[in-house]
Amino acid sequence: MIALLANWKVIAAVVGVVALLGAGWGVRSYMAEHDRLKVANALYATAIDDNLAALAELKADYAEALAVVERERTVSLARARRLEELKKDIHNATDDEDGPVAPVLGGLIDGLRSKAADNAD
Asked: What is the pLDDT along the chain (121 residues), one digit of tens a residue?
């Protein structure tokens, strides 16, 4: 034990070198992890940007599809209103308009033909 105390400077130097090596290893490990996380962060940022671009494209496609559906809905509602008008004309036809060759049915057919011609344009 006395020999150890006599060489305290050597022991202190060895402990200091070991501490410095340990600290260096810790810093190197920290820096390696930092670099790994920086690369992973860049990959995630790229993936997020790609996802945001895909989302914007999907939103544009959705808006376009919604506009088409709305146009078709408007056309369908107009057709339904016209059909209801024609049905009311048939239902409300007088006895003079109803017969073997019902003039009201001729009006119905004429109305359907004119509507079909309008849609063909």
From this structure: 566 667 778 878 888 888 888 888 888 998 999 999 999 999 999 999 999 999 999 999 999 999 999 999 999 999 999 889 888 887 887 777 666 666 677 777 777 877 766 665 5
**Domain coverage including residue 54:** 13-120
Number of structural domains, the chain?
1
Start-end of H helices in 1-121:
2-6, 8-91, 103-120
2 located within any domain: no
Ramachandran angles phi, psi of 96, nearest 5°: -65, -30
Number of Cβ within a 10 Å radius of residue 103: 13
